[in-house]
Design goal:
Elements: E1 11-13, E2 19-26, E3 31-36, E4 41-45, H1 46-54, E5 59-61, H2 75-78, H3 87-91, H4 93-96
Antiparallel strand pairs: 1-2, 1-5, 2-3, 3-4
Length: about 100
């Protein structure tokens, strides 16, 4: 099996099927900072990374399509309907300049 180096900005899937992104590498301390989809930040050392690779517990993954994982937003807020601005406001000459 070939070695898979951690790349900043790359997403991976761990043994628990959780998605995480490598957000920083510290060559001096030999640590990898990762952020899970839910926003939790953790640190992993190079040895742990390599052990997980050897045990086939780590694989590269696509970035999630749902961007809201680390954002503290309720699902109801995402589906919110906005009131339509009355056309009367836009018919006032002074307000027309705001449209440009």
């Amino acid at each position: 099996m070939h070695a898979m180096k951690p790349n900043v900005g790359q997403w991976y899937r761990g043994v628990t099927n959780e998605l995480f992104e490598v957000v920083a590498l510290d060559e001096k301390d030999e640590t990898i900072e990762i952020q899970y989809f839910d926003g939790t930040v953790a640190e992993m050392d190079f040895d742990s990374w390599n052990d997980q690779l050897l045990d086939r517990m780590l694989d590269a993954a696509d970035a999630p399509e749902d961007w809201s994982g680390a954002v503290d937003v309720e699902i109801e807020d995402l589906n919110r309907e906005f009131e339509d601005t009355s056309r009367i406001l836009w018919s006032i000459p002074e307000e027309r300049s705001m449209r440009r």
